[in-house]
Amino acid sequence: MLYMIGIGLCNGKDISLRGLEILKKCDFVYLESYTSILCCEKEKLEEIYGKKIIYVNREMVEINAEKTILKNAKEKNVAFLVIGDIFSATTHMDLFLRAKKMGIDVEVIHNASIVNVVSETGLSLYKFGGIASIPFENENVESPYEVFKKNHSLGFHTLFLLDLDPENKKYLSANEGIKYLLRMSKKKEDNLFNTETHCLVCCKLGCPDKKIIYGKAGKLLEKKFSSFPQCIIVPGKLHFIEEEALEFFKL
Fold first, then answer.
1. Residue 247 per-residue DSSP state
2. What pLDDT, in 10s, does the model give residues 109-149?
């Protein structure tokens, strides 16, 4: 049996009671280490869960799962832990499908993810358009900006996820993301995103020490954001309640 369990965004206590109960009866507990940042030590998780945790990297999940995770799930109870929610990253649906094809029973236990905690900014989830990811190597990558353009034309908010590589402690900063958007707008000559564009920078959403800052892109570039993970939100057409909420986060 394979149990795919979201453990939330901040620390070991964010796991649901159902998730924790299931985890405690598992023979193997794997934690993927590449789609987000674990905001506490692995040893702390092991203390809370009462289980030995095995880190797995992208290669082990996407290429070698049949030899390890799924092989064990054929005969034992296996927990596959994901920071945030299970299916916020497409790679986890791939694991789910491979398990099903091997005849392995799968149960999914959901949790909070960046996709829903962005509502803490005061922006309505119903008014978010497509989500875009800005990669490290983005010099000639236009797709994130094209997502923004489409959302902008419809008056929707745009959430930009910023690339990360936790294994190598490498994270794309909000400053770099804003520079990308400015560069792409200049390249497209549409002026949809400029130094006067209002946007939000969010750091460690879902944690007590989160940061949410709202202001003009040019002013945000002057600040240094040092806690990760980070994301950028460019609001679309605002409801008066959203406008009121954003006032609490103004520079």
1. G
2. 999 999 999 999 999 999 999 999 999 999 999 999 999 99
The C-alpha atoms of residue 74 and residue 43 are separated, in whole angstroms, by 27
Half-sphere exposure of 119 (CA within 13 A, CB side): 9
Q: Dump pLDDT digits (tens) for 53-79.
A: 999 999 999 999 999 999 999 999 999
Start-to-end C-alpha separation, the chain: 50
> Going by CATH, does the domain composed of 115-249 fall within 3.40.640.10?
no
| Dist. CA 196–CA 179, nearest whole Å | 13
- Using CA atoms, how far apart are residues 101 and 248, in angstroms rounded to an integer? 49
Residue 233 host element (H or E): strand 230-234
Q: Taking the domain 2-112, which CATH number applies? A: 3.40.1010.10
- Is the link from the previous residue into 135 a cis peptide, with omega within 30 of 0? no
